[in-house]
Amino acid sequence: MSENKGIALVTGGAGGIGAACCRELAKAGYRVGIHYRSSDLSAKKLMEELPGSFLIKADLSTEVGVDHIYEELKALGGIDVLVNNAGMTKDAPLMRAKLADFDQVVSVNMRSTWYLTKRLGRMMARKSAGRIINISSVVGSTGNAGQSVYAMTKAAINSFTKTCSLEFAHYGILVNSIAPGFIETPMTESLPEEEKLKIIERIPLGRMGKPEDIASMVRFLATEGNYCTGNTFHVNGGMYGAL
Ligand code: NAP
User: Fold this and answer.
1) Could you give the 3-state DSSP secondary structure of residue 28?
2) How does DSSP classify residue 11?
3) Ligand 1 mean position to 185 CA, how many Å?
4) Residue 199 in contact with residue 144, Cβ under 8 Å?
5) Ligand 1, residues 35, 38, 111: which to mutate, most atoms within 8 A of Cβ?
6) Is the CATH number 1.10.10.10 carried by domain 6-235?
7) Each residue of 175-202: pLDDT tens digit?
8) Which numbered atom of ligand 1 lies nearest the CA of 109?
9) Residue 170 alpha carbon to ligand 1 centre in Å
10) How confident is the model over 72-117, as pLDDT tens digits?
11) Under 8 Å between Cβ of 57 and 33
12) Rounded to whole angstroms, how far apart are CA atoms 239 and 205?
């Protein structure tokens, strides 16, 4: 670990992309808060691996879960970097999709990001500094058959990022999102092999991304990128680029 840069919280920090972000931010000198909901074992292992890191367990789909995170960070004196990474999907063609699944995906991917950012944004404003990095997805820009809700929530994250960047700029808080393409994590692990091959055919760099490919962009936006705010950065091996 290099110099102490303050506290960085990664939601869903024990998952595929989240754990890579925790490692990268710890290497960059942050004391990392590893948020998790159900991955107790991996979260604990990661905490043991990263000196100075700490755990926060909370269900982000609930108000009390978000409030708990706020209180924990308040007790530690605030937060410098927030990575809104936790997310989920329930895929189905729209005609067969269920309303209950819609509500669940929206509550984790969108509602929790809105509420956590609202609460922690105010905490950062008191310090007149902060970085917020939202993890969206390439499908928020391209759409994806079978992912009507997921893609909708990710597009919303990009729009939310823009609004927050406008509201928070004068507090010295920079807000950006990263839209990963297809990344090798538990979320994509369950895709049938045939579908994975089809996806890879659409990726100019000829491979799925690794969690570290996203984490290095998170690190850039947390530690450098001093003149970047309100952007969506696409990290997808060339399969899509915003013009
Ligand atoms: P992952 O390993 O499944 O990680 C997602 C994390 O979200 C999990 O660790 C989970 O925590 C947390 N989570 C889910 N529901 C939650 C809830 N109700 N409360 C709190 N935490 C909750 O998947 P990943 O691929 O690393 O995904 C990370 C982010 O990248 C997501 O936002 C995803 O949409 C986005 N993304 C992924 C890809 C990809 O190809 N993998 C592509 C584009 C965007 P627990 O395990 O502790 O329950």
Assistant:
1) coil
2) T
3) 9
4) no
5) 38
6) no
7) 999 999 999 998 898 889 999 999 999 9
8) 32
9) 31
10) 999 999 999 999 999 999 999 999 999 999 999 999 999 999 999 9
11) no
12) 8
Contact 18, 187 (CB under 8 A): no
Q: Can you give the residue ranges of every domain in the chain?
A: 6-235
For residue 59, give the ligand 1 atom closest to its CA. Answer: 19
Residue 51: predicted pLDDT: 96
Strand partners, 135: 178
Compute the distance from residue 12 Cα to the ligand 1 centre, in Å: 6
Report the pocket of ligand 1 as residue ranges, CB < 6 Å: 12, 14-18, 36-39, 59-61, 85-88, 108, 135, 137, 180, 182-183, 185-188
Active site residues: 150
**Rounded CA separation 180/202 (Å):** 14
| pLDDT tens per residue across span 7-59 | 999 999 999 999 999 999 999 999 999 999 999 999 999 999 999 999 999 99
Residue with tokens 């269900």: 59
Q: Which two tokens stand for residue 1?
A: 């670990």
